[in-house]
Amino acid sequence: MLTNPSFHGGPLQFIPTVRSELCCPIQLHRRSLASSTMENRRNRRRRRRSISRSFTQFSIRASEDVSVLAADSAAVQASPFSVRIPVGDRHIMVETGLIGRQASGAVTIRDGETIIYTTVCLADVPSEPSDFFPLSVHYQERFSAAGRTSGGFFKREGRTKDHEVLICRLIDRPLRPTMLKGFYYETQVLSWVFSYDGLHPPDALAVTAAGIAMALSEVPNSEVVAGVRVGLIGEKFIVNPTIQEMENSKLDLLLAGTKNAILMIEGYCDFLPEDKLLEAVEVGQDAVRGICNEVEALVLKCGKPKMLDAIKVPPKELYKLVEEIAGSELVEVLQIKNKIPRRKAISSLEEYVISILSEKGYISTMEAFGSTETMPDLLEEDEDEEVVVDGEVDEGDVHIKPVARKTVPLLFSEVDVKLVFKEVTSKFLRKRIVERGKRSDGRSPQEIRSIDARCGLLPRAHGNALFTRGETQSLAVVTLGDKQMAQKIDNLVDEDEYKRFYLQYSFPPSCVGEVGRVGAPSRREIGHGMLAERALEPILPPEDDFPYTIRVESTITESNGSSSMASVCGGCLALQDAGVPVKCSIAGIAMGMVLDTKEFGGDGTPLILSDILGSEDASGDMDFKVAGNDVGITAFQMDIKVGGITLPIMKQALLQAKDGRKHILAEMSKCSPPPSRQLSKYAPLIHVMKVKPEKINIIIGSGGKKVKSIIEETGVEAIETQDDGVVKITAKDLSSLEKSKAIISNLTMVPIVGDIYRNCEIKSIAPYGAFVEIAPGREGLCHISELSANWLAKAEDAFKVGDRLDVKLIEINDKGQLRLSRRALLPDAEPEKQSTKPRSASLQNDNVVSPRTPDKGKPKKAVTLSKDGSASERAEPLKEKTVPIKVSSPATDKTQPKKSGGNISSKSGNAVVNGEAKVV
């Protein structure tokens, strides 16, 4: 039976086998009852008294031991211990024994003013045996760590955010390989960011804190785990760089491992060569080794003994029985190429093994026997004999001599049979690959599955691609939009962060032919989506060249290994189909490994597998995903299921992955139909223009009224303004885009003394003159003395509101007010006749530029405003320019200017004055 270690004498030492002592009287009682069908009542009473005394003595011993444990625990809790560990060019502070003293392991780790608190706790009783270690990890960033509160209605941290989920995965993945098989006590790791200085990132610290807390706890893990981040600034590798240093880094590598091996790496880079990545891994491994050595010394001083006696593994005899029953059939089943038939055949074979063992009496259905127990010591007694417990006999009883009955065969639980069957299946799969060089689908270790790629399947989507590699398939869809479509990130720092590019990955149960839950994205989906997103990010154009927000959706429609890398390939093709001017094409591939080939008939050299299947991922020793092109790497992620790998093995995997990427890129170039590489007619149009920063408020207006009125008047989707003077107009059609562009240009135009404005409307009349609108929202005063060449008693005598006339700008005062003149444009030789009719009829199509004024010597501008507020002009370009939309599309090429700063006109009559109207 399993025993849970308890404490014995000395500080934080185990008491020997409390649970086993508890079970011994029960077992003896059951065995005696099972073999005493002819016992008399007197013997039964004596046996019960004996068992009662045994329980009483055990209770006394247990209470004494618990008292010793409590005293020892209190002594340890009263003395916190801390240590400074050098990491890179600074130290981290690790402290235990002060906070969280009731947890199995608790540690506080500090870097600068960033503080992480992590605990490890385990359940009191074991869970049902399964094929995975029952470990759960939760990581949370408290807003109070940065002096903030949640922005929502409830001032409490809500559900786990995506980046917190990613850090949970970073903590979980390196811990699992160090857990010993057969330990089924549910274990929980909780990690909080209690202080954040905005300079030292918490994720690498959280990995190290979890590794230290696990090492201090009773959980029986094999080695200490630590994690570091490595950056590359120039040609120098930096361990645990600050956030400011990471802004200039070409590499973002997070590495976790033990002092002897690498357990997990994940990172992103800008087409970094394989040799540079290996150098970074070596630097990170050296730093991890230093941390682990210091932590081991800490564990010797204040760590708790491990629960090694709680480990329960199936007996070796069960492995032999399963191989005898299913060995030959497994060889045939593993040769089935297709996933679903192979999975069903393996499941049927498992049921067959269970049924055979049940018929032979090897599988126990009695809860009393546990999962595995040998029963050779059952006793046979005569009528007047009784079992002696702990050597005690009642007065008057006769000493007895137990006689052994026949041996009962081994009894196994059904769960143990399933666990052993899975391991035997994995063994036969590895043996087939190593001995024969053939995998389940018939490929060699380096061979890539057949690839098929298609674009343009969804006519209304902005861009889409269907990428198929063997039995793995991804449908990638691209949607383009403005900043309103950007993803807002709520982080610890008090700044709004928006992502203009994000990839969302979904893995419905139908992709593996199963029925399952459909709801919020799982942690696996979030992690795979982020990996594919970071892989594609380096090939995107700058925002100045392509001012769109880009969303990629990858829906896995079939899955048999490496669906995240299929998302990279499909996403790249979908971006090209959407007309995004990507820098190059990239591909992704997943690598597997059989580490100890000597056990399966090889020479002991690790065997690297390219483009692994799902079964090879589950039964293999490594899952190494690498994305990039034939020049360098953009993203990578490695999980190890054994004790770790070395740099030579990683080098071999990287070089083999590079060959695989080249092959996949060649197949992607054969995509049929190919990507359109043009904007879809259903994609929104975005125009970028530049105005003087101080004129942004004119566009926005009081309380945003002006910009809202422009949107309503023109029908555009949105108008985005920035403090640096950049204005982005988003519209569904070209006509509305041109209207809003003309209005904004006129609003922000800078008038120059001497400019001429034609066909301008009189907005209001005062006794001293008329107010004339020379551009939307921009008016000037034409004094009564400047309205006519002749003397006027009242302005109303000659003009009324709504009349149109040509005016010239003759003065701009200190307040920015404009003074206009109509008289300056009238012929001197021909006196003007007063009339109440509009003067603009004969000048409707007059675009003549007036001559230079002799006193100013500056070029004049003729601006004609139509009734709809549009304008046209001819003048020399100014320094301020409108930034044209930089999109190659038939829908926009004919209407966008070839040269920035020139006149922009359209068939609708709208125009931008010199690319940007100038406003005082």
TrEMBL record:
Q: Does the keyword Cytoplasm apply?
A: no
Which BP terms in the Gene Ontology apply to this protein? mitochondrial mRNA catabolic process; mitochondrial RNA 3'-end processing; mRNA processing; rRNA processing; tRNA processing
Q: Which family does it belong to?
A: Belongs to the polyribonucleotide nucleotidyltransferase family.
> SUPFAM superfamilies, per this entry?
Eukaryotic type KH-domain (KH-domain type I), Nucleic acid-binding proteins, Ribonuclease PH domain 2-like, Ribosomal protein S5 domain 2-like
Q: Which GO terms describe its molecular function?
A: 3'-5'-RNA exonuclease activity; polyribonucleotide nucleotidyltransferase activity; RNA binding
A Pfam family per the record:
KH_1
**Which named protein is this?**
polyribonucleotide nucleotidyltransferase
Q: Which InterPro entries match?
A: ExoRNase_PH_dom1, ExoRNase_PH_dom2, ExoRNase_PH_dom2_sf, KH_dom, KH_dom_type_1, KH_dom_type_1_sf, NA-bd_OB-fold, PNPase
Enumerate the PROSITE patterns for this protein.
KH_TYPE_1, S1
Q: According to the UniProt entry, which residue ranges have a biased composition of type Basic and acidic residues?
A: 870-883
Source domain of life: Eukaryota
- SMART domains documented for this protein: KH (SM00322), S1 (SM00316)
Enumerate the subcellular locations listed in this protein's record, separating them with semicolons. Plastid, Chloroplast
Per UniProt, the keywords (alphabetical) are: Chloroplast, Exonuclease, Hydrolase, mRNA processing, Nuclease, Nucleotidyltransferase, Plastid, RNA-binding, rRNA processing, Transferase, Transit peptide, tRNA processing
**Compositional bias of kind Low complexity:** 898-910
Q: Name one GO cellular component term.
A: cytosol
Q: Where is the composition biased (Polar residues)?
A: 837-850
Q: Tell me which EC number(s) this protein carries.
A: 2.7.7.8
**Ranges for the S1 motif domain?**
754-823
| Annotated source species | Anisodus tanguticus
